[in-house]
Design goal:
The structure holds 2 protein chains of 2 kinds. By secondary structure, chain A is of the alpha+beta class. Chain A contains 19 helices and 28 strands. The termini of chain B are far apart. Classes of the chains: A alpha+beta, B alpha+beta. At the A-B interface, helix 4 and helix 19 of A face helix 11 of B. The structure holds flavin-adenine dinucleotide (FAD).
């Protein structure tokens, strides 16, 4: 393996700037004449707006503009969109209420944008925003998912019962028949708790209108600048696409929350024009992030598994109610449907699966994709259900899984819920994980813990996910409004340095390193001569951005294809220079060689000839720059086994994770160090969901977990040192690198392992987050509360 | 943050005078509570008087067998003080459990007790050890200092100078942190002192830290975890929130008391 090639643990080049304070985030950008925007947000979960008295603040010091929903309407700006059309069982399209940039007539959640104040200084904008008088008529609110159907209050008048869609997937008749004939049925109700993303950098946007060119620039915390540009241009009407540049500079984490097109970025651009072109900057305060970033998860499900007497799965039936909040965010509809129910086969050969999903509006923040998006909900449901079945039938949890795995020789494998898994070896990852976790030694560890008064438990989770999102034709047939290919450009300079322009966006993933490794490996260019450029619609080719663990599997493959074109062109030039036939030229280790001879030209020489074409093939364009687009033929299917071991303190219900083993099949791995880091981060988020995190609203729709005083983020001491293995790969067949994607796995697989471990320790399942009180109550639910 | 005038007096006398002269003036110690309050626009003082430059408010001295700690002494200084560790190790251990290193490097004893957050740790130590609060005007026994949630016996123009802690024979603090904030959800400070047994509970009570007298009586003749086995804690009057119900807090009071007793030996 080359020092910087595929498989090398190359330290991340971007870390130099991040750890020395030289990162340049949106809020770090300050321009001459800059002004500040503060959004006035609804204090009520549901209210009619009787009036906004703009005159009350228009003359306050420094105030440049006060804009509300009426102004948005008057200027003809469009509504925010949901880009994926889901149809109900009866074929009718999902029912949606409008999602305006600034509220029009009604507010629908605490934090809903009512107006914006732009002023000379941040303090002046704050003062005016605070003084703005908004006359509200409070309405009853729907905050509870379970009670959304038939609730007295309607979030959107046009959506009856608050029901957005009632969707289904799978063969219901076959499933019902299998259940009717089953030896055993395991049934459970379960909650997938609502999460708040909490990226370290809050959302921020700067809008700048240049009257000289009649064009806008928007600096933005975006995971996908081109998608932002497309929607802001084509649907909102901020500017025509060619008159809008979106720049996502360094972005401090997204986890999905920065995919979406929110009102704020549109408003700051529009406001900049309104005030004559001065830049308008908005940076969310942390409390605003809690209220207004799209939240994640929030399902209530009933899950059933039919088994024969040997523990073979016969069928699975799932009903899920999904809370989508007060408005349909950009990708909200596909999360509890196509990113969820299609994964319900898990790693198993369950022959028949049926799932129906009712999605509801409530007077809470919009809910959309958050690390894993749909797949964590599916994986958690399957893996807790399988464990419960094992418990009921008295089968070891590892055995019931072994019995039902899709065998390694059955790939490609068509599941009953639409997906075709290309490769995998689920038993191999399970066995490796069990060995590493010393599963066999667990009974002894449990006995030893018991002597110390602790309840020790072990839990497995064999997750699968669909990544590398996504084949455009497939998602198009399912209702997506866009294609999900990716693009790249590889550009050499005279001196042989390389710029790689990618349509993906790095906000913590380390693309600048990984992508450079791809080029170094493929073209034999020194690693230090490669620069990866991303995040600016004016520089990079059109791309769809970073989410769904797609950047390497889709964006990386576009880079590989562009490299293929570089090599092909290089061969033509080398053939000319070496006076050989093009077909005789071979490319290897950065050199073009005439096959079977020692005659060769280094890539650098060929590149130089392309830019200084004094002696050059007559029919060939000069220059060395190639672009490629790649639309993947299938999703990729990372999978693995996580083993969690906990100790529970019976006196208090405290759960201590004492051991955590993760064996992942990510296919081939480009940079194991970065991949392990991604796994660590994902595991911590998954453990956070299982034990600590949970967004809570009170009955009136006020967010109770609106700061870190009440929303519990995982900290370093909440997690153990992880044992992570990423070399258990079966190469993916949907791209030439054989990679599957690793960004979400930890968050997808961990919750099931943690909850199963607790269940194993205390004999009962506790809903997430498994707080000390819940665990304590579960332990003592049949016992009088005695002092321990 | 609203606009205010900022003062940094060099002596206690100057601070007292500034406080008397400006009706809407507020003191600032480590600013760990007060600065976030200002940033969220929850307070609108005319003047902020920073106590950070007043040397006489800082420092730890051994006095009359116990320790006296200046109001502006940081939690981290208490945690690391050789004197506190020797004379009242339980107090140093408590300080070490407050917040994170950044908070401990700025937060102060005076600020903590004057604020009297019902989930703060120090009030447990003051009540548990029978400490005395020395102010710019008088001496106030801990039992009379904490008067309710975020309320103390301090008058508007009164400044905490120091706290004197007598040395206990045995003492320990057991804390069950709130998982999110890491303040105490339930903290119990137990001490066996010349004047009798003291058991103080913080984090749990709706009106702040309080003494658990039933436990004190049970322990008076039998200083051991088993001595409180027969007691039950009444949940009425205890906090109930998304992190813990009053019932669970009541349960934890006893569990933490037993842990503290076991640790005190
Ligand atoms: C992230 C975080 C975590 C924390 N965790 C904990 C924890 O686990 N346990 C815990 O107990 N605390 C915790 N705290 C609180 C912290 O430790 C401080 O004790 C607290 O913020 C008050 O001390 P201060 O010096 O910062 O006072 P300030 O914030 O400056 O002042 C607080 C109040 O006291 C008044 N005041 C200050 N000094 C005096 C004085 N000498 N005389 C009269 N009035 C005065 C001020 O006017 C103000 O009203 C935490 C704080 C933060 C920010």
């Amino acid at each position: 393996m080359a020092e910087h090639g595929i498989g090398a643990r190359v330290p991340r080049v971007e870390d130099q700037r991040f750890i020395t304070g030289k990162g340049r985030y949106t809020d770090d950008i300050n321009q001459a004449g800059q002004t500040y925007a503060v959004f006035v947000r609804s204090p009520h979960a549901h209210a009619r707006i009787r009036g906004v008295d703009k005159s009350s603040v228009a003359s306050m010091p420094g105030v440049l503009a006060v804009l509300d929903g009426d102004d948005v309407k008057a200027d003809g700006l469009g509504n925010l969109i949901c880009g994926w059309l889901v149809k109900s069982k009866d074929g009718s399209p999902m029912k949606m209420g409008p999602h305006p940039l600034l509220a029009q007539g009604k507010v629908r959640y605490v934090g809903d944008r009512v107006a914006v104040v732009v002023a000379e200084t941040y303090a002046q904008a704050k003062d005016a925003a605070e003084a703005l008088v908004v006359d509200y008529e409070e309405l009853p609110a729907v905050v509870d998912l379970a009670g959304a159907h038939g609730a007295a209050a309607l979030v959107h008048d046009e959506v009856a019962d608050n029901l957005i869609f009632d969707w289904e997937l799978g063969d219901k008749a076959a499933v019902d028949a299998a259940f009717a004939a089953a030896h055993h049925v395991t049934r459970m109700e379960l909650v997938n708790n609502r999460l708040i993303p909490n990226a370290m950098e809050p959302r921020a946007a700067i809008g700048v209108y240049d009257s000289g060119t009649d064009a806008f620039t928007c600096y933005l915390t975006s995971q996908n600048p081109h998608v932002h540009r497309l929607v802001m241009a084509a649907f909102i009407g901020v500017a025509p696409e060619h008159k809008l540049r979106v720049v996502g500079p360094d972005v401090g984490g997204g986890f999905g929350s920065k995919i979406f097109i929110y009102g704020e970025e549109c408003v700051v651009c529009w406001a900049s024009r309104k005030i004559g072109g001065r830049p308008v900057k908005w940076t969310a305060e942390r409390s605003e992030s809690f209220l207004s970033d799209a939240h994640g998860r929030d399902h209530i499900s009933t899950a059933e598994l039919a088994l024969d007497k040997d523990g073979n799965f016969l069928a699975m039936r799932v009903n899920t109610k999904a809370n989508l909040g007060a408005y349909m965010s950009t990708f909200s509809s596909c999360v509890p449907t196509y990113l969820y129910a299609t994964l319900l086969a898990g790693q198993y050969r369950t022959p028949a699966i049926y799932c129906d999903v009712q999605a509801y509006y409530t007077n809470t923040a919009p809910v959309d994709a958050y690390r894993g998006a749909g797949r964590p909900e599916a994986s958690f449901l399957i893996e807790t259900l399988v464990d419960q079945a094992a418990m009921e039938l008295g089968i070891d949890p590892a055995d019931i899984r072994r019995r039902n795995f899709i065998p390694r020789d059955a790939f490609p494998y068509q599941t009953p819920v639409a997906l075709i898994y290309d490769t995998g070896d689920y038993q191999a990852t399970l066995e490796e994980a069990l060995k590493l976790a010393d599963y066999a030694g667990f009974p002894a560890r449990r006995a030893e813990a018991q002597r110390r008064g602790k309840l020790r438990g072990i839990g497995l989770s064999c997750y699968i996910e669909a990544c590398g999102i996504a084949p455009s034709a497939v998602v198009g047939s399912l209702g997506a409004g866009v294609g999900l290919w990716e693009s790249a450009k590889v550009r050499f300079s005279h001196t042989g340095k390389v710029q790689v322009l990618t349509g993906t966006h790095s906000h913590g993933q380390g693309h600048e390193t990984t992508f450079a490794q791809l080029i170094a490996d493929k073209l034999g260019v020194p690693f230090g001569d490669i620069e990866v450029i991303h995040g600016d619609t004016e520089k990079t080719p059109v791309g769809m951005g970073t989410y769904g663990s797609r950047s390497l599997a889709v964006g990386g493959e576009a880079i590989m294809k562009a490299c293929d074109k570089i090599i092909a062109k290089g061969k033509k030039i080398a053939a000319h220079l070496l006076e050989a036939a093009e077909g005789d030229i071979e490319f290897k280790d950065g050199k073009f060689t005439v096959a079977g001879t020692d005659k060769s030209k280094a890539l650098g020489e060929v590149v130089f000839a392309a830019y200084v074409p004094h002696n050059y093939p007559p029919d060939l364009e000069p220059g060395m720059e190639e672009g490629a687009f790649f639309d993947p033929p299938n999703f990729t299917f990372p999978a693995g086994t996580y083993v969690c071991e906990v100790e529970v303190e019976p006196a208090t219900g405290e759960v201590d994770i004492v051991r955590f083993t993760a064996v992942d099949d990510f296919g081939n791995v480009i940079n194991p160090m970065i991949v392990e880091g991604q796994v660590h981060g994902g595991l911590v988020q998954g453990i956070g969901q299982a034990l600590l995190e949970g967004a809570r609203y009170d009955d009136s729709g006020q967010l109770l977990t609106g700061s870190y005083m009440d929303y519990c983020m995982p900290r370093a001491d909440n997690v153990p040192s992880f044992a992570v293995v990423t070399s258990a790969g079966t190469a993916c067949t949907s791209n030439s690198m054989g990679v599957k994607g690793c960004g979400e796995a930890g968050a997808i697989g961990a919750p099931g392992a943690v909850i199963n471990a607790i269940t194993n320790a205390i004999g009962r399942r506790v809903e997430m987050p498994a707080t000390p009180e819940k665990v304590w109550r579960a332990i003592h639910s049949n016992v009088a509360v005695a002092a321990e | 943050m609203y606009d205010f005038a900022y003062h940094k007096p060099a002596s206690l006398a100057d601070a007292v005078k500034l406080l008397a002269d400006h009706e809407d003036a507020k003191l600032m110690a480590g600013g760990q509570t007060y600065i976030p309050t200002l940033k969220q626009r929850l307070a609108r003082p005319s003047d902020v008087i920073d106590l950070g430059a007043i040397a006489e408010l800082r420092g730890i001295t051994e006095e009359a067998g116990g320790v006296t700690i200046g109001a502006m002494t940081r939690h981290g200084e208490v945690a690391e003080s050789a004197v506190v560790r020797r004379v009242i190790p339980a107090l140093a251990a408590l300080a070490e459990l407050i917040g994170d290193p950044q908070v401990r490097n700025l937060g102060t004893l005076g600020g903590s007790i004057s604020n009297n957050d019902p989930a703060a740790d120090y009030p447990g130590a003051l009540l548990g050890l029978g400490a005395t609060v020395r102010t710019s005007k008088r001496q106030i026994p801990a039992d009379q200092f904490f008067t309710g949630m975020f309320e103390t016996a301090l008058e508007r123009d009164e400044i905490v100078k120091a706290v004197h802690f007598p040395r206990p024979e045995k003492a320990a603090y057991a804390k069950f942190p709130n998982p999110a904030s890491r303040y105490s959800m339930v903290g119990v400070f137990v001490a066996k002192t010349g004047g009798g047994v003291r058991v103080a509970v913080t984090g749990a009570g709706q009106s702040g830290a309080y003494r658990w007298t039933a436990a004190e009586q049970a322990l008076a003749g039998n200083w051991s975890p088993a001595a409180i086995d027969g007691l039950t804690v009444d949940p009425s009057g205890l906090n109930s929130d998304i992190h813990a119900s009053a019932d669970y807090r009541a349960h934890l009071v006893k569990v933490m008391a037993k842990r503290a007793l076991a640790a005190a030996g």
